[in-house]
Amino acid sequence: MASIIVLLIVYLLVVFGIIAGSWKIFEKAGKPGWAAIVPIYNIIVALEIAEKPLWWIILPIIPIFVVPIEIAKRFGKGTGFAMGMIFLPFVFLPLLGFGEANYQGTLDELDHFG
């Protein structure tokens, strides 16, 4: 019984880390943080942040890999960090959400500055 409770606590901590990290990422990008907890809408908002077309929502494999890469770019992070967001989201989403990285704007805005 104790091991089940420990596993449940670990699971809840992982889920909380993913939600909290996503919430902060959305806020940093100028989107409502609560969108991170709304199914389907959270994918739509992530697509907006990554500047990808809405129709991508029907292609589940593309957003899983490309959207984190594009979001990482907009926060000044590289592909390695994006891979962490994909495979270890409970570590990397809170790092991005609560860390020092700031949303750097759209690709058009990024191109104008450098």
From TrEMBL:
Q: Which top-level group of life is the source organism from? A: Bacteria
Q: Does the keyword Membrane apply?
A: yes
Does the entry feature the keyword Mitochondrion, yes or no? no
Any stretches that span the bilayer, and where are they? Answer: 6-26, 33-49, 55-72, 79-98
Q: Which Pfam families does the protein's record reference? A: DUF5684 (PF18936)
For this protein, the record's InterPro entries field holds:
DUF5684 (IPR043739)
Q: List keywords of the entry alphabetically.
A: Membrane, Transmembrane, Transmembrane helix
Record protein name field: Signal peptidase I
The source organism is Saprospira grandis (strain Lewin)
